[in-house]
Amino acid sequence: MATQHSKTAARLMISPAVILLFLWMIVPLSMTLYFSFLRYNLLMPGMESFTGWDNYYYFLTDPAFAAALTNTLLLVGGVLLITIVGGTALALLLDQPMWGQGIVRILVIAPFFIMPTVSALVWKNMFMNPVNGMFAHIARALGMQPFDFLAHAPLASIIGIVAWQWLPFATLILLTALQSLDREQMEAAEMDGASPVARFVYITLPHLTRAITVVVLIQTIFLLGVFAEILVTTNGGPGTASTNITYLVYAQSLLNYDVGGGSAGGIVAVILANIVAIFLMRMIGKNLDA
Amino acid sequence: MGKITLRNVQKRFGEAVVIPSLDLDIEDGEFVVFVGPSGCGKSTLLRLIAGLEDVSDGQILIDGRNATEMPPAKRGLAMVFQSYALYPHMTVRKNIAFPLKMAKMDRAEIDRRVDNAARVLNLTNYLDRRPGQLSGGQRQRVAIGRAIVREPAAFLFDEPLSNLDAALRVNMRLEITELHQSLKTTMIYVTHDQVEAMTMADKIVVLNAGRIEQVGSPLTLYRSPANLFVAGFIGSPKMNLIAGPEAASRGATTIGIRPEHLDISRDGGEWPGEVGVSEHLGSDTFLHVHVKGMPTLTVRAGGEFGVHHGDRVWLTPQPDKIHRFGPDGRAI
């Protein structure tokens, strides 16, 4: 098949898709890049003018930026930690033979099918609400003062909500990885005198590294862009306590009507995401090599 | 020391009885082979001895101690699995050292034993490789290395050669036999290949549907099979089993005669027949001969025996090599 002729044909055939995808990516990116060098305020239409690096300067020196950067990293790191540890534990439990395994597995996957806005609203109003929420009821039943999660621990609450959404994903991937573990290897380790803990550390965990890598990479991509959960619960507040970079870009361009500043923020976010990606690939990418 | 005794051992999976009730004595230092067709319970029996399956009823004694309820690690047995079950993320050295590390042995002793095992098994140059970078035979040796460093009371082999190609299998067969000669440790070896059983065993246990059909040395089983099953299973090519008037005339329900105990002649003999397929191996010729009133008989002729399809030949069984079986299938 790999003749010169077929290669040319293949290139021709695939080019429309590649060109379309390329345009889909490059047009918005270059427009954002263009806007980021403009003084462009939605309240003053038709007054756009070139301002050089000013938008970048103001975005990067904004005290909210430092807070948002920290929050973004905490959010990504926190959710990853919870989902990997929790996902491994859940996968280990679900891998045990038990009655009704199929149903339980579907139930565990369920949170992943709920759209972020809905689950964030459910958490906000039905669980974390300091008056009517379930947690408040439980606290009162135990004779304690209800805790206003979203006001006093906004970032931690959002980490909790997002982790709840992503836990099923991690569980699913890790469960399939566990199921592919050779049973004879476990038996060999058992014969070799390894305790259950030692078997987990020396056999199961190394077997899971590749799956964990996949989970970390995929989740990082999505977690850098968490937005809906923040918008419907805390609006980034109080202050900037739960603002991440994505939310800051939104606030800049649509709440402050400063499209130029927002675009600069968007470009900064792209660069930061690439830095994170490079670090991740350096650190754990080698696990993916067969 | 490695004397293993099974008393009345039973194994059931739910309703299905895999091993009805079984008694067996394995002496210290013996090379015992469990052989039988697939699904006869030989692997299950090995896993019961290893402790990887729970015994439904009965007792397993290892060196006189009741090991029925002991966890696998405490039984002092080492197992070589069919898939080798090497740990893919560890180097060969770490694989072999793993049981010692789990036993919390000190580093110097671990290194000494691993190097020793590697030398015995010709693995010294591969100690820093991963299992994925080794050939099938080398992986097999790593699996054996992991077993011998523990200096176990007995080795358990679960069809260890079935994943190797034919030439390598013959080699590894010799290596394992030699290992047994030098270690003098009890070995229990499961296989469905009767050639492996015949060549390696001190004692063969023929299993069929979870029942022991016969226990004995390879030549005992060859010379005097206790019943039709053993007669048909041991020996290659299979023994010719003939029922009907020919058997009745010798006072049996079925008679058996091995291919090598049928004399063949072009001039005359007891049973006239017609040559069917002939297999020329150089050293031997196996002829499939159609004799009236009998199933197709396999005959072994030494060296090259030049006959063609359809040629007329006469077969004469060596009278002292005829096995006679009664109506219950037992030898008379």
Topology record:
The complex is a heterodimer of chains A (290) and B (332).
Chain A: H1 4-36, E1 38-39, E2 49-50, H2 54-61, H3 63-94, H4 101-109, H5 116-127, H6 134-141, H7 149-152, H8 154-179, H9 183-191, H10 196-223, H11 228-233, H12 245-255, H13 259-284
Antiparallel strand pairs in A: 1-2
Helix pairs in contact in A: 1-13, 2-13, 3-8, 3-10, 5-8, 8-10, 9-10, 10-13, 12-13
Chain B: E1 4-13, E2 16-26, E3 31-35, H1 42-50, E4 57-62, E5 65-66, E6 77-80, H2 92-102, H3 107-120, H4 136-148, E7 154-158, H5 166-183, E8 186-191, H6 194-200, E9 203-208, E10 211-216, H7 218-223, H8 228-233, E11 240-243, H9 245-248, E12 254-257, E13 262-265, E14 271-280, E15 284-291, E16 297-302, E17 312-317, E18 323-325
Parallel strand pairs in B: 3-8, 3-9, 6-7, 7-8
Antiparallel strand pairs in B: 1-2, 1-4, 4-5, 9-10, 11-12, 12-18, 13-17, 14-15, 14-17, 15-16
Explain what you see.
The complex is a heterodimer of chains A (290) and B (332). Chain A has 290 residues and is mostly helical. Chain A has one domain: MetI-like fold, CATH 1.10.3720.10. Helices cover 73% and strands 1% of the residues of chain A. Chain A is globular, with a radius of gyration of 24 Å. The two termini of chain A are 27 Å apart. Chain B has 332 residues and is of the alpha+beta class. Chain B has 2 domains: 4-231, P-loop containing nucleotide triphosphate hydrolases (Rossmann fold), CATH 3.40.50; 237-325, Nucleic acid-binding proteins (OB fold (Dihydrolipoamide Acetyltransferase, E2P)), CATH 2.40.50. Helix content of chain B is 27%, strand content 32%. Chain B has helices at residues 42-50, 92-102, 107-120, 136-148, 166-183, 194-200, 218-223, 228-233, 245-248; strands spanning 4-13, 16-26, 31-35, 57-62, 65-66, 77-80, 154-158, 186-191, 203-208, 211-216, 240-243, 254-257, 262-265, 271-280, 284-291, 297-302, 312-317, 323-325. In chain B, helix 2 packs across helix 3 (107-120) and helix 2 (92-102) packs parallel to helix 4 (136-148). The interface between A and B is medium-sized, with 18 and 24 residues.
